[in-house]
Design goal:
Strand content: 25-35%
Oligomer: single chain
Bound molecules: guanosine-5'-diphosphate
Structural class: alpha/beta
GO cellular component, one term: cytoplasm
Organism: Halorarum salinum
Distance between the termini: 70 Å
Function: Function in general translation initiation by promoting the binding of the formylmethionine-tRNA to ribosomes. Seems to function along with eIF-2.
Largest sheet: 8 strands, mixed
Keywords: GTP-binding, Initiation factor, Nucleotide-binding, Protein biosynthesis
Helix content: 25-40%
Protein name: Probable translation initiation factor IF-2
Length: 462
Amino acid sequence: MSDTNADANTDGDALRTPIVAVLGHVDHGKTTLLDRIRGSAVQEGEAGAITQHIGATAVPLETVSEMAGALVDPSDFDLPGLLFIDTPGHHSFSTLRARGGALADIAVLVVDVNDGFQPQTEEAIDILRRTGTPFVVAANKIDTTPGWNPQEDVPIQQSLEAQSDRAESRLNENLYELVGDLSDAGFSADFYWRVQDFQKNVGVVPLSAMTGEGVPDLLTVLMGLSQRYLKGEMAVDATGPGKGTVLEVKEERGFGATLDVVLYDGVIRIGETIVVGGQNEPIVTEVRALLQPRPNAEIRAEKRFETVEEVAAAAGVKIAAPDLDEAMAGAPVRVVRDRDVDEVVAEVREELAEIEVETAEDGVVVKADTLGSLEAMANALAEAEIPILRAEVGDVAPRDVAVAETANEEKYRVILGFNVDTLSNAERELESSEVRLFSDDVIYQLVEEYEEHVAELERAQQ
Ligand code: GDP
């Protein structure tokens, strides 16, 4: 309600945009869905123009209501809209943390309605459960069901009801199978229009990222879910010192190493001192420039960005500052402002230390690209009952080979590298040792590769 909004603003507090992540199995349509949301939002008029951020897309409430028509009455909402993180997938989801939890406030789990649950769907569900992130399921690709007639600008419920019996029954079969899969995974689920309590039930939104049918319904559900259950968590200090999470550390010509950051609280300004989680120690530096993509950006790097004086949460922004080479994706960023630098450094250090990996006397060596992915690897290995001798962020180095060599059992003389490179001197070490290196950028595949290796060793010993 608008009066709540006024209340929220009187004491310097504001309600920020909920941060939305898109997860799901490969090829189930995550990228297409994000493109579709961006594309349809761009087509809507002035009132609801989306803003492209670094690493994220903001869809304002007006745009959601324009797209959703009768489904959304903007006066029912006081959250400003939705901020979609542009990088889909659970790798980025688990990498992106904030305050020890997930950076995303809410998630969309994309499932190909013809394909149903797949390994990465299960992985995504596990991560959502572990982080307690509320989510809705986008039952995607309904346009590929034989006999389905596309109907534009009609809420998906009506569209479904109006379909021919054959298409409907076929689609319904798939949709009910999906509801069954969700129930096997421990979630009670139903078509979103039948769900009364989204905290108890998972809403399934049938849609097509390709044709756009059902996409307004999805935005409506996300908006409603956020308004009803997340509003309290969206209250931020609009002018307080900025807090964010690093999406990526990127070399940018003319700027050196820069940070792509999602700011989830407060505000960040040019010239301010910030503390960023680094590979060894927290980095203390000063903001040189805050960059946003230029609308209709030209290809030439210098022209791609425009400088802004300040950025307020929730938003994506590129930060240029000295000494960012050792900054880590997934690490916290804090504006110091009126506080003691040491205090903020201690806070950053503490937040990084929260990611603890349980290690054993004997086990494998794990290397991963970020703290979040290291944690995800550790969880996957714990589930598969594979002990860890040492786990660290960074590329595979000679030291890792030396550590892996100290494992007692042969099956543990292994390095599992997740999304990392191998330094060339480490490659030489590997050649002259019996340590095996497995690397992959999909967690379950990495675990599977290792399990196959162990099975092979066991067969050889028999
Ligand atoms: P991602 O790996 O989850 O990001 O999947 P993509 O978005 O790349 O989609 C994989 C393939 O499925 C692409 O060829 C898309 O064009 C196609 N696709 C995605 N959504 C739909 C949909 O709703 N309908 C149809 N027919 N194809 C789709």
